[in-house]
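Table 4 source record.
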Amino acid sequence: MIPASFRDCKAWQKEGLPLSTSSNEACKLYDAILTQYVTWRNDETLAGIEGCISAVQAADPNFVMGHVISTGLELIGTGSSVRLNKRLAAAVQRTVELAGAQDLSPRERLHVRAMERFAKGCLPEACDLWDEILLEHPTDMLALKFAHDGYFYLGQQTPMRDSVARVLPHWNPNMPLYSYLKGIYSFGLLETHFYDQAEKIAKEGLALTPDDGWAVHSVAHVHEMRAEVDKGLKFMESTEKDWKVCDMLACHNYWHWALYFIEKGEYEAALSIYDSQVARRCTASGAMLDTVDACSLLYRLEMEGVSVKDRWRELLQVTQPHTEDHVLLFNDLHFLMTSLGAKEEGTTHRLLETLQELAEAPGESFQHQLAGAVGLPMCQALLAYDQGEFGKAVELLRPIRYRFTEIGGSDAQRDVFSQLLIHAAMKSEKKQHQRLARCLLVERDAVRPSSPLTDRLIQRAHALHV
């Protein structure tokens, strides 16, 4: 039995968010799935999100919002392509057909349309639809979270912040999941460089709910962006017991912890976190967030001159099945890091060739439309760098460096590409590129003062006789 604390038909009705089902069990299971999504935690007492998804479809097979949240979560996870996965494509189609045969509320119809547009790769339209829901129903947490994730994938930092800001006055502390709004809003603030406010809001959330892994993650970002390495290390260590229970986010928080060690030049400590936490969790979950973090961590270490040995081959087992997914350019770039690191030329060729084909005939997919101008040049730069063609990597990255944001992810995650440009410029034989490296490092030092990593790179750049 699902706990009584979850909302039944009457409770959802009372909140102005009625669900088109007569099954109280289905309504409660919908709430249970939503709660686990927001808290980044599979609740074992409920058999986790997967168990609840099976249960909600058994409780009412025709419950449209049950299908919207179940299929929507698989889509938003970006680990499966509707193009290639017939089961997922059929699940989207089934939801649309069910919606067409029922008398749904306008809000529910918008949810179905948003999910369908997201499935087709039309992320900006999906986000517009979720925001349209929030105009009339500002307490619809599913629309809020889906919009937040959608804007994140688009690298649209200001809409990600404002989408939450405009609904906050409509919430109160007695509402379910209220405290989690703090962490969600904080993340939008930090991605738009309001670091003081972001830290304050996240800590307000943590005062209410200490095990809110997303609010912890927001504070970790603040310390990362300010290069407050020792503060960051102390914070992660002191809160670890609270956030490591968030199984869907713990790997990412350990990734942040490892970044502080890379920043300090303590590579063995970073590798230790990779081996004991990141690689283990990534292999177990196969989740895209865990996977891209593993790729990024190894790539950063290699740029710093650290040998990561057989770890690329092991990680390839996780990334290789996704070579032709092409759901997000951000994912593609990280999978490419792994195939290059593992010296798997066939996989590298397949990834680039199939992405090129989609870029030439992108259809409605926003990511495929972006591939030609941004995604492919970034991929080709990774390949050039791997082949020792550092000048070519610079020429590919320099014209689009202010467009890196468009591939999505956070400032901290995308920093790997900024570092790549700096390393390529320093290694290039062209004096002009070496001068560019110095200029890029001056820029970097201005926005992130006192960064030990930047200081190390500046010393190396000055050793070049430009």
